[in-house]
């Protein structure tokens, strides 16, 4: 990790502490401690298990696709991919660092950059598509409730939906519209000619063209394997399902066992969409505000609501970043080509 990334990592933890302090500033600490010791920790373990399954299933998707391209890509290296993604998603605005971070650790193992790019984009397209489908279903169940609780932010949720839909369409164009991709890349790299000699520029352009060719061919090859695609879609469906269930188990841990699981899951889907709209890394601030506003009708005790918020944020955000740092420091096992 660069010095800048380390500083951002530490900063996000400090900002998180300040936000937690903001929420607990008017709460009696004795009551908070008392409620903390009434938590049913078995349900918290289940919530943690859901987060580990979320990460583990993404590793399974990565390994499943890469196994069709190269041999000897281990699960140990596959699990590094989603963990490093969690780290760089968490320290960059709009989660923009997640894809480059994943690409870096895959290339570290010896996977060709073009093949790695096609793997990540195929995985990303399926992931985004499942998010959009889940969002549409959740919108039917919970949009009116969100509109009542968040007012104008509810329309930002719809705006977020259209952004995700646009991203999917744009990625499909890049993956399958070969001439468009080549033209786009060639126009982007034109300024590079101003800074390097012609022979080096031509060598650089030839290398990029080769990577684009590999990327394009791999994208088409993977998409044509309908059994593989179906497998990825099913795994991704369960991956997201485990993630969306996390607040439900946290609420159960705090003693509120009469909640509607479908409504809780639907609201978490919408929160996931809201977080993606905030430019601050990890959607910090927006995530906590959305959680408190949407779930306070289900967790009627204010102290327990704040406990739920803190536990949810620790599991879904900070845990992933900590594991990501560990994964980033693990030396990869090189693929034998």
Automatic annotation (TrEMBL):
Topology in membrane? Multi-pass membrane protein
Stored InterPro entries: L-PG_synthase/AglD (IPR022791)
Q: Output the Pfam families linked to this UniProt entry.
A: LPG_synthase_TM
Where found, per UniProt? Answer: Cell membrane
**Reactions listed under catalytic activity:** L-lysyl-tRNA(Lys) + a 1,2-diacyl-sn-glycero-3-phospho-(1'-sn-glycerol) = a 1,2-diacyl-sn-glycero-3-phospho-1'-(3'-O-L-lysyl)-sn-glycerol + tRNA(Lys)
Per the similarity annotation, which family is this? Belongs to the LPG synthase family.
Give the protein's function.
Catalyzes the transfer of a lysyl group from L-lysyl-tRNA(Lys) to membrane-bound phosphatidylglycerol (PG), which produces lysylphosphatidylglycerol (LPG), a major component of the bacterial membrane with a positive net charge. LPG synthesis contributes to bacterial virulence as it is involved in the resistance mechanism against cationic antimicrobial peptides (CAMP) produces by the host's immune system (defensins, cathelicidins) and by the competing microorganisms.
Q: What is this protein called?
A: Phosphatidylglycerol lysyltransferase
Name the species this protein comes from: Apilactobacillus apinorum
